[in-house]
């Protein structure tokens, strides 16, 4: 069986997935989608570009031309677009932070009045917490809005305005693999940072799932399955699903859980592509 | 019956659609989505923001919260994202310009070598031909790519590299309304411009559909129906579908056809929402 | 005598200056520098584009080709670049807010630790307080820095990190005309805004100069003379000069002072160009 | 004697300059201006950031606080801003390409009609030929202008519209050191590229100056002296000065000339700072 691993920046994850796929019996070829136009129809494609749109279009292209893709384009989009994630999850009754969708800076300031301060303002797209802002008052919100207005990306002009889920700086990340949740972990923001992204220096600890794993399973199903990670905030009022990642990093989770996460993912993908 | 008309910039189209909806028996309320966060669930929503992402999120929000939307979010996205349009159409066997999808500038230059010059390079999103470039040689392509790299919008880093369909400067635009094609027209680019957008000063003439109308019907079905316009290039090798617009302007078509286009659209929407 | 009034957006100020120049005996021709390349050498040029770089290059071009310009390019640059203003003023012993110059976001965060929070972070260029941010803590500073990093303008990557001069929301603006200070006013920020720009809704009151007028005269001399406005913060520790504007707006000052400000400026320019 | 070498990205040039300064008897300390705010007054500063604005503000800061800087801020700005370079050179009677200054895209298209096609369109700032476009016709010019309009940097909205100096793809680069011109070289653009920047793969050959060296000396004087490189186009109608670089790279020149260029520069700086 042949698997094409499409990437742009080869991280630890991509190298380990290639190893895992080979160990699971697949022949692996690599495609750097940053260097060549998309072409061919390779049968089974593991979609791993870091950039969300590169991942989305890679998956859309190959699934439109007859290949099986992991993740499917619908999943990458539903996870990569935080507005869509929110609406899908809340439509399924999965708890999420109280949120408003504002299509301009002016609407975001109006949403701020309705939600109340402090609040979180974030754009629909972006990884590692980038541009996710903890806004303490209307003046600081205006400063953020003015800056955002200067970035000429239409999608970054959209604001998700959200309640702050206390306590900040801690979340639970679970991995979802075709309906199963093999591992979760707790992430704690480093000192002086409220965002608990591993890329920002968060510490990780093992965590045995329970309610979080169940929520992660429902969230993974809601965005369409495949292989995703789910970020859950353990709020004082109960757990809420914060975000879903359609091209998940999992180095921290491998470390925290002691499991061969890339091997688990790779085996599942080989089975999926063999169906 | 109540219809919410969601807009950002009220053009002639929005005013005429409001009139048409009222004449068709609806009570119309207006919502400027640029000023307030999205809220409520108004039953039937006519989605008319000029900005594609505003239109998409408006439709996604209201359809997720139980309203009937025209267009549905899938349609606005499938038409608004030219990569998705291309893949959907060619997947259905509808003729489109020969195209390659390149996820970086470097890949676009490689696509240029494969397609050959002159060629058209355009990003996946954008209206009125904005950033659609007619590129004569690899050097000019490199200049365009360098400029594009400086615009910090992830989606604008994606290039559709496309054959030039001769003759340039003329196309057929048809309106599609829930499976019907009530009118088409020919658009001719003004002197010194190769893009035939009415916003760029193109002249319009009536055109009785035939093959174009049939192609438009298939293209409208392919992107998911509703109310869209379809741009068709009358190439020397046969007609090809160039783009589909999910929040169509139709002032030029009303003038060219002599028909009450907003009335036709409004009646169809009222029937659709009543179902 | 002939005066060329170079503009891009004709505001009240430009119309009144044209009137004043005519009343002072000049023949006035108008040039919209947004529409045509710069050309000619008209003798005396009043430089009034709203955009700082348009004003600067207009003045640089005409002064390089032999015309007398008001303001001279050095003045427009020294006032328009807030780093240069700061360094010029403090080099002359004129009191300014305690400030650090940081050439990247990372350096700005280090400057924040040195200055202490709350602080003001602003880029070297910009009018009407745009992007001038009141930052309450290091986390909010990181949010601003991340946003700024996404704006692809090299000059906006530079941060002026500054103490907050209490009380916020009030300043004194004086007009400087070739060494004289004909009028000052007090500006008070509207409710819910700390920036006292008239364009942001600040209220204005007459103010008889005294110490402020003297500071304004020194600041105007320091940036090279001509016609500028000077913003002074009446801090609890004494007055400090905050900014200088090289293409000043003065509608608020005309209202507050009851003087014919455009007439005063126009007469001075005619005398200057006649020398 | 102490010299502060201020840098952001340490290239071969910075390392060799540090070596040369030490060999010339200076104690060298290094400052990464990308990491810390500017501070202190170190006496003698060699200004070497790659980014023009970082270099400019570094020089402006240190020269305002009493240090001797190489280059002085006026030189870095006069060389870094290609509009200012052009006006300074032509004001001194030094031949330059026929050029127009256009402050908007619309003005650039009007300049294109006046200059005629093909032409060169470039912004006032930028290194290694970035955004310098060879434009074949008005349609291609419109494509470039539309792209430029999307980059939210005010200075990039300014266009220098210039005749093409034939033959393209070849220029002479000379180094200017405090009034002397120790070496020149010829650069030839690689195949498929018309820009002769070494960073773009240009080949270099030794060149003994003559007329070019004399032009370089006049151009270096015109921008204010110090250490700069001068790019000269050997046009069929005679040599013209194209650009001046205020923080010059010289690795190619060291290779082509066989001289110890960093040593030559370092000795001159030590002498200069000792004065």
Task: Please tell me about this protein's structure.
- Four copies of one chain form a homotetramer.
- With 275 residues, chain A is α+β, with helices and mostly antiparallel strands.
- Chain A folds into three domains: 2-78, 3-Layer(aba) Sandwich (Rossmann fold), CATH 3.40.50.20; 99-163, Dna Ligase, domain 1, CATH 3.30.1490.20; 166-259 and 266-274, ATP-grasp fold, B domain (D-amino Acid Aminotransferase, Chain A, domain 1, 2-Layer Sandwich).
- Chain A has helices spanning 12-23, 52-64, 73-80, 82-91, 105-115, 138-149, 211-222, 251-257, 261-274; strands at 2-7, 27-32, 44-47, 68-70, 99-102, 119-122, 133-135, 159-163, 170-177, 180-188, 203-207, 227-235, 238-245.
- The first copy, chain A, has a five-stranded antiparallel β-sheet with strand order 11-10-9-12-13. A four-stranded parallel β-sheet of chain A has the order 2-1-3-4, with helices on both faces. Chain A has a four-stranded antiparallel β-sheet with strand order 5-8-6-7, with helices on both faces.
- In chain A, α1 crosses α9 (261-274), α2 packs antiparallel against α3 (73-80) and α3 (73-80) crosses α4 (82-91).
- The longest helix of chain A is centred in the C-terminal third of the chain and has 14 residues, at 261-274.
- The termini of chain A are close together.
- The model of chain A has no long low-confidence stretch (mean pLDDT 95).
- Chains A and C meet through β7 and α6 of A and β7 and α6 of C.
